[in-house]
Amino acid sequence: MTPAASAPVPPAFGEGAFALVFTLTLMAPLAIAGVALINTGLGRSRSAAQALLGNLAIIAVTAMVFAPIGAGLAGVLSGDSAGAGLSFLAAGKHWNWLGAGPFLLRHLATVPPLHQLALLFEFPAVAMAAIIPWGSGADRWRLTAGCAAAAVIAVLIFPLVAHWVWAGGWLAALGVNFSLGAGFLDPGGAASVHVVGGLSALAVVWMIGSRKGKFPKEGLSTAIPGHNAVYVLFGCLLSLVGWVAWNTAGAVIWLHAPLAALPATAISTLLCASGALAATFIATRVRFGKPDASLCANGWLAGLVASSACAALIAPQEAMFVGVTVGIVTPLLVELFELALSIDDPSGAIAVHAVAGLWGLLAAGVFAPGAGQLLAQLVGISALIGVVLPLVYFLFALLNLVVPFRVDQDGERIGMDLHELGGGAYPEFVVHRDESYR
Q1: Within a domain: residue 14?
Q2: Rounded mean pLDDT of 318-322?
Q3: Phi-psi bin for 403: left (phi > 0), alpha (psi -120 to 50), beta?
Q4: Are 250 and 312 contacting, i.e. CB atoms less than 8 angstroms apart?
Q5: Which domain holds residue 76?
């Protein structure tokens, strides 16, 4: 393995620009808070405390693991040698596949300010990637196992993809090496955050199976509605604020966009989410006779996820089209996964994060200017599905042998709150067990 060639270093920017991007990055965790509320509200009431504590614990675990190890592998602390890493030579090109930055955050104060902001951006990004599968495993995934899976994501899976996309890795270098547009583009983390999280959710659901009573007979599905629509919808509002901050900060950090371009990025983010919500509202009203609150929330979130890939790259009217499209598709996919494939995904993360993220990446290639950009995006999408998904499943399967993922039947029957925490989120209410356990 040889060190990869250095990537071009963007020009320095003033203190005012630094302060603005720093503030936007600090606001990005509001998106995490919104997703955490959505995950909690879409689960059962007798698992609500465990669900929300799990989100908090996962954020803590990812920070403690990513700081000493994952940040070095992601490669954003290489300073003036941004993009330096481990590579191999094939077809006359260097394929930079993993970062070789300093571990334990050494020399943090000596790297350029933009790289420090990039590192700060990655902390909420890795946390978001890790809490996405937590919602899919709701009501039957053990807290210790969820934290262990989060550690695996933070120490290897996220740094690997983040380096490919953001730190001069082989996907980012497709433009230089093969004249494919500007290389693979993902300024808001649709690939490294949402697709990674959504594919991890798929691996978890495959591994732990469905909740007891969800599929009583082959071809049949029992509705298990979320216990608190207020949590879900308020989480959507919080997510909007965080996503606007996230996408605008990412545009400056990863695309080196001028500050004058940030209002258009914010508008595109809003329009993408709004178009998705309107489309899901209409689609569920046509399908069920009345709009469905939880599916509308899924549509809104899917629009935000898609905007992560393309809001900084396309025009606002194109962003609205991207949102409308994903808003129509998302409720259909949620239903398809459940009824046709017997996938029990309480939060809808596979459709909302994985599929919507892939659509946003594809849309960036379709609408963004640059010859070969669509092909660059397709190469990145193929790598996510063909490399990252099998890797995640393999690592989780090994982890499941050491830290069993699924709670025992008695724990699922009485609820995760009582089983793992010894008390419920709503002690003043009587929580009834399901008929399927009698």
Answers
A1: no
A2: 98
A3: beta
A4: yes
A5: 30-428
Residues 6+ apart with CB under 8 A from 359: 306, 322, 325, 326, 329
| Residue 421 to residue 190: CA distance in whole angstroms | 34
Distance CA 98, CA 120 (A): 19
Q: How many domains does the chain have?
A: 1
In a domain, 86, yes or no: yes
Amino acid at 428: E
State residue 409's pLDDT score. 87
What pTM does this model have? Answer: 0.93
Give 360-393 pLDDT, tens digit per residue: 999 999 999 888 999 999 999 999 999 999 999 9
Sorted by sequence, the CB contacts under 8 Å of residue 249 that are 6+ apart come out as 21, 24, 25, 28, 117, 121
User: How many residues are given for the chain?
Assistant: 438
Amino acid letter, residue 247: N
Longest dimension (CA), the chain: 68
Beta strands in 141-223 (DSSP E): none
**Exposure of 20 by Cβ count < 10 A (0-12 exposed, 13-18 middle, 19+ buried)?**
middle
Q: Is the pLDDT reported for residue 84 higher than 80? A: no
